From TrEMBL:
<keyword id="KW-0648">Protein biosynthesis</keyword>
<feature type="binding site">
    <location>
        <position position="120"/>
    </location>
    <ligand>
        <name>Zn(2+)</name>
    </ligand>
</feature>
<protein>
    <recommendedName>
        <fullName>Glutamyl-Q tRNA(Asp) synthetase</fullName>
        <ecNumber>6.1.1.-</ecNumber>
    </recommendedName>
</protein>
<dbReference type="InterPro" id="IPR000924">
    <property type="entry name" value="Glu/Gln-tRNA-synth"/>
</dbReference>
<comment type="function">
    <text>Catalyzes the tRNA-independent activation of glutamate in presence of ATP and the subsequent transfer of glutamate onto a tRNA(Asp). Glutamate is transferred on the 2-amino-5-(4,5-dihydroxy-2-cyclopenten-1-yl) moiety of the queuosine in the wobble position of the QUC anticodon.</text>
</comment>
<keyword id="KW-0030">Aminoacyl-tRNA synthetase</keyword>
<comment type="similarity">
    <text>Belongs to the class-I aminoacyl-tRNA synthetase family. GluQ subfamily.</text>
</comment>
<feature type="binding site">
    <location>
        <position position="99"/>
    </location>
    <ligand>
        <name>Zn(2+)</name>
    </ligand>
</feature>
<feature type="binding site">
    <location>
        <position position="124"/>
    </location>
    <ligand>
        <name>Zn(2+)</name>
    </ligand>
</feature>
<keyword id="KW-0436">Ligase</keyword>
<keyword id="KW-0862">Zinc</keyword>
<dbReference type="Pfam" id="PF00749">
    <property type="entry name" value="tRNA-synt_1c"/>
</dbReference>
<feature type="short sequence motif" description="'KMSKS' region">
    <location>
        <begin position="237"/>
        <end position="241"/>
    </location>
</feature>
<dbReference type="InterPro" id="IPR049940">
    <property type="entry name" value="GluQ/Sye"/>
</dbReference>
<dbReference type="InterPro" id="IPR020058">
    <property type="entry name" value="Glu/Gln-tRNA-synth_Ib_cat-dom"/>
</dbReference>
<keyword id="KW-0067">ATP-binding</keyword>
<feature type="binding site">
    <location>
        <position position="181"/>
    </location>
    <ligand>
        <name>L-glutamate</name>
    </ligand>
</feature>
Amino acid sequence: MNASLGAGRYAPSPSGDFHLGNLRTALLAWAFARADGKRFLLRVEDLDRVRRGAEQRQLDDLTAIGLDWDGPVLRQSERLPHYRQAIDRLTEAGLTYECFCTRREIQQATSAPHGPMGAYPGTCRTLTSSQRAEFRAQGRRAALRLRARRTQFEIVDELHGDYLGQVDDVVLRRGDGIPAYNLAVVVDDAAQGVDQVVRGDDLLASTPRQAYLATLLDLPIPRYAHVPLVLNATGARLAKRDGAVTLADQRELGITPTQVVTALAHSLGVRAQTSAQFLERFDRARLPREPWVLGTNGLLQHDRCP
Ligand code: GLU
């Protein structure tokens, strides 16, 4: 490991126990970083949806599957002044505006037949100060949005290649005053020296927004690798309700963390019994590009390596 070689990271939200999909992504993020001689950092994204005790259980699970990390764990809740600074900088550059739209109004606007799907259409971009005052008088609280100067941005992804995606007036600070994920992640990756982001491919579509934000803040854009998710038997993203999907559930079935690692490695086309073996043997160019679809009854009985 060499600090000048940069860092990778895993950035879980402490909203509950990890399921096998989270553990599989963590294993990959760790293996990518370690294979490149990078530091591997952990960041707890606790601005939202925190469940008591979840952070410690998540860290324990990572240790149980043989992952290690460098330095103290960073918590976003301890970094609010840094997000504020970044938001102020964008505001001073004329790149923000207040948005009073309700969730419902946004939903209606973003599903309108014109305009890119899901992109905020800029309803509040041109509000006058008296219109803003009127909204405030109605008791509406303003979110702060980016005044984006483009509608697309291209990023490079190790698995997906060049990816051109939508950029819109992303929320920087929510109506309740909490900095938004897309802003915090950009500020934190840069502050932590993260130059390699390995995460689930459900986040690929948000990545052009984040990379664009980084350029506006004069921050470097990391290298990305968006890895396939784990799906349940119906093809939906794995969730707690899908049965025995956590390490604790698996333990109750008599399946050890080592066996879980073996199954995760197997799902990635690698024969390995430990994370260390996985690291030695995996080849990022040959990782599956398709999601791993689990069986119906809590899976590992089916998917365990022979
Ligand atoms: N905290 C996010 C999640 O748990 C991940 C964010 C990221 O890796 O950038 O889904």
